Amino acid sequence: MRNLEVTDPSQKKVKLGSLMLGQKVNKQVVLVNHCLLDLSFTLTLSTNTSLDPKDLSVSPAGELKLKSGGGSCKVEIQFSPHQHIPPFSAELQAKFAGFFHPLLTIEGCCKGVEVHLDSNHLSFGAVVQHCKTSRRIVMMNTGDASARFQWQTDFPPELSIKPVKGYICPGKDVPFEVTFAPLKPCNDLRYESLFCFIEGSPSVKLTVTGSCIQASTSKEVVNFACRVRSSQTQSLSITNPCSERCSIRPAIEGEQWSATLFLTFEPNQTKTFDITYRPLTMTPDGHKHVGSVFFSFPAGKGMLFSLQGTATPPKAKDTIMHELPAKTKHCEVLQVNNWLSRQQRFCVLLEVLKHEKTDPTVFLKGHDSIEVPALTKRDYKMSFFAYREGDYNTKVTFRNEVTGEYLFYLVNFKVRPPGVLSTIKLETPVRQMASAALNVENPLTTATSFITECKCGDIKAPPQQTVPGQSKGVLSFEYLPLHVGESTARLTLFSSDLGHFPYNLLLKALPPPTEETVHFQAALGNSHSTPVKFVNYSHLITKYHCKTDCPDFIVDKSVSASPGFPSGSEVRVEVRFEPHQLGEVKGQLSLTSETGGEYIFPLCGVCILPRPQGPFRITAGGSVTIPFKNVFRQTTTFSLQVDNPCFTVKAVNSIPSKKTQNILVSFEAPTGGPPGPWFGKMTICSQDSEVHSKPCSWVYYLKGQRPQSSLEA
């Protein structure tokens, strides 16, 4: 029957591929009859494995008839697997009466998931109430496709399984831990048809059985008491009632208690078990923290202890002592711990203890709240400022307003008298004023007065200044030095409400500017007097010592001045210029006082040639006395000459320095001559060339006349 075949030779092998459950594939081939006879046959499948007709089918079914010489028909192959089918090979045959004729081969497979448990039933036996025990089951995938799995979410509260969901690969196993923790005593606990949903495969089911028995309870109640967030540890005596070695895990109820996780016992061994009470919340009056610890041994035996705890308020986190001067800002950093596994927000309360009312002269400042992340710590900064000395005890409380829990610090300050608040530099020439100002703050609600104190006489400040409540005032003061030099002084403001405010003054008095030069002019032998004026700024009656550095300038030894602080009082001192030689003379006048300081005036004198004097009138037969002073600094011999014989002069010896001698000049009228008058000139010359460098002479004009009676006759 080689003449019955597929029209397309490539279709002699039909590959259906690898399908997944729920997928479907159709293939179509055409059969043709090349025989000279008509053919009648049916189609049948011959496979190496058993296949369900629902999974692989061929149509049309029934008897087929093909005419000779090219009769043909279409054959449809449908593969729609409903189960896992390993790779297979099937042969499509034409069945004739008495024999089969192969037409083509069909290949394909269906990848599927075949998942089952190693045991569909778990028995836990008797378990003590509030204890738990675990068993293991294994899920196996014998298919050739991976699948996701997930156990039902509505497990009974006594049962739990891990993992709840996951992914299982072909040929792999997934172990599960099933935990049984019964809550109520019961002789028969049964949990049937616990489903695990398998992707692409029917669900698997599990049945769990067991029983719950009561534990033997210790009649003793273990009591604990400590401050909140501290701890207390107590020891319990535990005996293994079993005759076998075992490791147990104590079951602790109550978050305030903790202990070791495992205990290992030898048969019938007694051990000490330490359990710690560490409360994170305070217990209100009349209430206690309640808990228990249960020891579960094999064969359903156990031991239960009741626990009670009292948590009292916390003690101070720390007590801090500081000593500092008044009116000095102090910053304190406090560490705030968050003992919870969630963020906490603390409200901050700053208070001064042992004061019936708020002291407005003490300031505690800081933020109103602080947020601390879980199980960490943060720094909180606060500042302290006190105007007056004394002992101040403060308390800083950090409170969680939601839970009422808190922690606090005690910070004690010993405030001593204030140090220097600031240093003020002032610099000015003597007798010139410099000013400065201080800002004074009054934090009180009422006005207060500040009394000024400074022992330096060069500082002038108002004795008292009043500053209104909760405002700032400005205290201006002045520096008027009278002596050159550098010094320090202390300026203190005192308020009975706010205490002392000390300030340091660095004072520097520079030399004064040069005083105006005093000028003189006098002829040799004469003098010129001029008053020198200055201002006395001393606040006392002051005596100034006067002196010059040149003998040609003459001044009194001292002069008194009336008080002149701060505006000054004018003082006059007379200076006389008596030159001893021609030309310009320079000198310096010094006026010195211990309280008033020193004044220096430049002096400049000009000595000109002596001017003629006279005429001196002399009556005939008479004489006149002319005073003459030796202006030189040494004893000097002078010559006297007259140019008219009618006048005669008596010679003189040497004249001591700065001494005056009277020179006697006489006049005799000529007999019988004219009535007169007669004129003459007396010249006095220095004979000592060492005394002066240039010739110097003094001229005195003379006038002689007869007596009045003789003229009338």
From TrEMBL:
InterPro entries: Hydin-like, HYDIN_VesB_CFA65-like_Ig, Ig-like_fold
Pfam family, one: HYDIN_VesB_CFA65-like_Ig
Main location, first listed in the record: other
Compartment list: Cell projection, Cilium; Cytoplasm
HYDIN/VesB/CFA65-like Ig-like domain mapped to chain residues: 115-210
Source domain of life: Eukaryota
Keywords: Cell projection, Cilium, Cytoplasm
PANTHER family in alphabetical order: DLEC1 DELETED IN LUNG AND ESOPHAGEAL CANCER 1, HYDROCEPHALUS-INDUCING PROTEIN HOMOLOG
UniProt-recorded name of the protein: HYDIN/VesB/CFA65-like Ig-like domain-containing protein
